Amino acid sequence: MFTSNPFAALHGFLPPLFMQVYLVLMILAVIAGTLFDVVHKGSARYFFDNWRKSKSKVSKPLGGGELVSIAVQTAVVDVLASGEFCNPRRRIAHLLGMYGFVIYVATTAIMVFSPETSGVVAQLWWIGGLMVCLGGYWFWFFIRVDVLAEGHSPFRVVRADLFILSLLASVTLGLIWAFLQARGSSGANVLFGLYIIASTVLFGSVLWSKFAHMFFKPAAAFEKRVSYANDTRSNLPAPADKPETFGIARGQPRHY
Fold first, then answer.
1. In this structure, are residues 143 and 256 in contact, taking their beta carbons and an 8 Å threshold?
2. Which residues of the chain have pLDDT under 50?
3. DSSP conformation class of 101
């Protein structure tokens, strides 16, 4: 079960082109939703306007080597290690979800476009999906601020939860579908339909969810580090791996 390609078995009732076209449409939906989000909310304009204002106050101009070094620090600390999370449990949950999602999506694409693929790739698909579930459900039931600190029910849902809930629904239904399909269950096709619906909500709701944030956060983290390095003074806290402060004090984290 864990070494077989679950998408290859779909060819019995769906043409191979179906999942390939669906995957391309979901990629286009993410791109279109992100671009529309940038235009609609003015994220790019705000970023570049703020960048220009910072450059006008530069007291310590940075060279090309320093900018490269800052870019590497941003990639390693803020992106790859999720350094913005002070709470170690939240950082671990986020890293499980992030890397699990990357592995899950990459292996899904490989198996959809290469139906003969199985073995290690299929195993990584399961591992990635389980990582998403472990990090996501851990965050949802035990780490969220409104649950841990404010005492709200873990089943309380607001609009900001659209991304995490659709992600968990998509991955969970996908794993259950693959499990039932491997066992020859008659309910596998129903689970596949639910899996497609949840995945469509996940990738089609970029404009209303936090999905697009993953594309903005690296740029914001880079700008923060540049502002810190050239001493332009910002009202943002210092980068996660810098004990010093600029603008306002970082202090002890109050979030969970």
1. yes
2. 243-256
3. H
CB atoms within 10 A of CB 249: 10
Q: What is the pLDDT of residue 253?
A: 42
Sign of the Cα pseudo-torsion (227, 228, 233, 235, in order): positive
CA separation (Å) from 115 to 77, 108, 231? 37, 10, 54
Instruction: Report DSSP state, residue 96.
Output: H
Q: What angle do CA 110, 116, 120 make, to 5 degrees?
A: 60
What is the structure's pLDDT at 34?
84
> Could you tell me the two tokens for 45?
């304009």
Q: What is the pTM of this model?
A: 0.78
Tokens representing 107 are 């292996």
Q: What pLDDT shows up at residue 33?
A: 86
- C-alpha torsion 243→249→255→256, nearest 10: 10
If you compute the radius of gyration of the chain from its CA atoms, what whole number of angstroms results?
A: 21
* Pairwise CA distance, residues 1 & 12, whole Å: 18
CA distance 191 to 51: 48
Closest CA to 100 of 27, 168, 178: 168
Burial of 28 (0-12, 13-18, 19+ CB in 10 A): exposed
Are 220 and 228 within 8 A, CB to CB? no
How many C-beta neighbours within 10 Å does residue 105 have?
18
pLDDT, position 99 = 95
